[in-house]
């Protein structure tokens, strides 16, 4: 068949379609001139485009991500992609989500990993960005190190080691300054002497405040893990009151003789305890002793140039320094 002849279902160079029957195929059409056979008819251009689209496969869209996957890590849910989880094939996650290791499902059908859910956010973000981004006041390096060791993402292990060296250098030298204030107030309260019988009473109450500043936010976290407020019958760590990583303000009262427990709550009066000794701090002397024990165990020492002896003995100012 010449270049100008048409086959069954074929196209000629004039975009005509040939209607060829078996009988036509047997006939000699070798004498057909340069024009198309008479039994050809023009085809609508839209139909041609549709037929061509069926013959030519659509190009792949490589920008489409893999299907999202929801993980349940220690009770916290995270949604990511399979490509993110398998970006490091030799890691624990790479093995789990490439079929090399079995995975467990929770009751909702999500992949379950029995590890710390809060810390996993830093690991997942590293998989996404290849950067280890931690808050300035991050205090859970030990826990993060254990989780990183479990997932065995080698670049993350190296990034964590670099971060620990960086933090260690920043924490070597530190200063701790504590300003103390104490005043006496009168507290009024009612005492139930019998059913339907109440009496009004009052008593003097010692009120303490301590403004603590340290260049080491790690030390303030350590201090916060030792000191607890007693309020409404519960103990709560002062760490929850630490809004500035380098500054902490404490306000508390000593126990008031005869003051009913519910009056502490009603009048918003907090008491201060030190754990694990379970000792209540009812004076500045006890407070200073406990803070000194914690600070000295963390490498601090008393600044020889400040405070003056009178200030230190009167529990007004405490300044400690640390050199490493």
Automatic annotation (TrEMBL):
Keyword Nucleotide-binding assigned: no
CDD domains with a match to the protein in the record: BTB_POZ_KCTD21
Superkingdom of origin: Eukaryota
A single GO molecular function term of this UniProt record: cullin family protein binding
A single GO BP: protein ubiquitination
Pfam families: BTB_2, KCTD11_21_C
Keywords recorded for this protein, A-Z: Growth regulation, Ubl conjugation pathway
InterPro entries registered for this protein in UniProt: BTB/POZ_dom, KCTD11/21_C, SKP1/BTB/POZ_sf, T1-type_BTB
Functional pathway: Protein modification; protein ubiquitination
PROSITE patterns: BTB
Residue ranges of domain BTB in the record: 67-136
Name of protein: BTB/POZ domain-containing protein KCTD21 isoform X1
């Amino acid at each position: 068949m010449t270049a100008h002849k048409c086959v069954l279902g074929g196209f000629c160079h004039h975009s005509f379609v040939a209607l060829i029957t078996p009988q036509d195929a047997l006939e000699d059409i070798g004498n057909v001139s340069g024009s198309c056979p008479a039994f050809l008819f023009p085809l609508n251009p839209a139909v041609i485009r549709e037929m061509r689209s069926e013959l030519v496969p659509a190009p792949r869209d490589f920008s489409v991500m893999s299907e999202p996957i929801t993980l349940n890590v220690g009770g916290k849910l995270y949604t990511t992609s399979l490509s993110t989880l398998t970006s490091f094939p030799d890691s624990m996650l790479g093995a789990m989500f490439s079929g090399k290791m079995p995975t467990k499902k929770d009751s909702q059908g999500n992949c379950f990993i029995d590890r710390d859910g809060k810390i996993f956010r830093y690991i997942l973000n590293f998989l996404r960005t290849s950067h280890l981004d931690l808050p300035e006041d991050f205090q859970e390096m030990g826990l993060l190190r254990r989780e990183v060791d479990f997932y065995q993402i080698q670049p993350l292990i190296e990034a964590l080691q670099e971060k620990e060296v960086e933090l260690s250098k920043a924490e070597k030298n530190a200063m701790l300054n504590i300003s103390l204030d104490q005043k006496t107030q009168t507290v009024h309260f009612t005492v139930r002497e019998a059913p339907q019988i109440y009496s009004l009473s009052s008593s003097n109450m010692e009120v303490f405040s301590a403004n603590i500043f340290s260049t080491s936010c790690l030390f303030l976290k350590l201090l916060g893990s030792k000191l607890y407020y007693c309020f409404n019958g519960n103990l709560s760590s002062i760490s929850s009151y630490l809004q500035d990583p380098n500054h902490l303000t404490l306000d508390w009262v000593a126990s008031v003789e005869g003051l009913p427990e519910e009056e502490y709550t009603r009048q918003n009066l907090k008491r201060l305890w030190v754990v694990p000794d379970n000792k209540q701090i009812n004076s500045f002397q006890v407070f200073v002793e406990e803070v000194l024990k914690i600070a000295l165990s963390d490498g601090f020492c008393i600044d020889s140039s400040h405070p003056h002896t009178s200030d230190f003995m009167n529990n007004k100012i405490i300044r400690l320094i640390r050199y490493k």
